[in-house]
Amino acid sequence: MLFAMICGFGEVEDVPDLWVQHQVSLCEDFVHRYSEQTGPHYALADIEELLTSYNLSLQKLHLPTVDLPASVLERANFDVVEEQAKANSYTIQFNSEQRNVVEILLSAVYNNAADTPKCYFLDGPAGTGKTFVYSTLLHTIRGRGDDVIPVASTGIAATLLIRGRTAHSVFKIPIDLNATSTCNLKPNTKEADMLLKTKLIVWDEAPMTHVHAFLAVDRLLQDLTKCKEPFGGKVILLGGDFRQVLPVILRGSRTLTVASSLKKTRSLVEIS
Predict the structure, then answer these.
(1) Predicted confidence (pLDDT) per residue in 198-245, tens digit
(2) Residues near 103 by Cβ (< 8 Å), separated by ≥ 6?
(3) Mind listing the pLDDT tens digit for each residue in 190-211?
(4) Domain with 58 in it
(5) Residue at a domain's end among 14, 46, 73
(6) Which Pfam families does the record cross-reference, listed alphabetically (predicted)?
(7) What is the C-alpha separation between 164 and 208, in angstroms, rounded?
(8) Is the same domain home to 110 and 202?
(9) What is the pTM of this model?
(10) N or C of the chain: less Cβ packing under 10 Å?
């Protein structure tokens, strides 16, 4: 994201040279997740998506181009049998609370009853197994041949999710937010199609993100699905720990910080 911001605000004249200088660092996570050969392609595709917020592209900046956006590359086919096996191996390690959470979410995903809640928040301090629950849900749903989108509020948190990405990258959340902000993701695109097809959205470290970002994503999903339910009727699991970092408000009071938090998002069912 920092590389895209530097390019977007025009802080460097020779962008290709900047890429060459820092390519190893910029591609490190992608190489670790994929391979030496494909890692740089994923990195460039991710940068391409971030650049759209600044009306830029790899081509405009004279950077190497890739054929597909990261959102499409991330959907590389999963081995359904392997995903099912991983889901089973994770499930047998559950405690009763973790099992309850997964059962609630899977029921929400595959139960079409009108009165089934769709928006959930998983609360728990560090080390209580939230990531383990996320991973089980990802393997289980992918093991059934369905799509699931894992995102996080920070890049570091996103690396802990299987093929996770930042929420800003997936939803095209603008950098400068206000109460009426809209995401920069267009309908009838491959990225929009990915959101429409997904069975579940998992969003880790959600308490760190300003409520205006959630409102923007809410508008985006309602616009794409043509459904006025919260988040367009999509099943969404937000997770994190309000005991840790809340949205950072410049010179903000305690009251203003709380007012900017996820607590102000409507229609969440808390499960802990």
Answers:
(1) 999 999 999 888 888 999 999 999 999 999 999 999 999 999 887 777
(2) none
(3) 889 999 999 999 999 998 888 8
(4) 1-73
(5) 73
(6) PIF1
(7) 17
(8) yes
(9) 0.73
(10) C
- Secondary structure string (H, E, C) spanning the chain: CHHHHHHHCCCCCCHHHHHHHHHHHHHHHHHHHCCCCCHHHHHHHHHHHHHHHHCCCCCCCCCCCCCCCHHHHCCCCCCHHHHHHHHHHHHCCCCHHHHHHHHHHHHHHHCCCCCCCCEEEEECCCCCCHHHHHHHHHHHHHHCCCCEEEEECCHHHHHCCCCCEEHHHHHCCCCCCCCCCCCCCCCCCHHHHHHHHCCEEEEECHHHCCHHHHHHHHHHHHHHHCCCCHHHHCCEEEEECCCCCCCCCCCCCHHHHHHCCHHHCCCCEEEC
Please give the mean pLDDT across all residues of the chain.
85
Residue 194 CB neighbours (<10 A): 18
Same domain, 139 and 169: yes
Of the candidates 74, 31, 59, the residue with the CA atom closest to the CA atom of residue 170: 74
- For residues 29 and 159, the answer to whether their CB atoms sit within 8 Å is yes
Packed helices 130-143 and 80-91: angle between N→C axes, nearest 10 degrees: 140
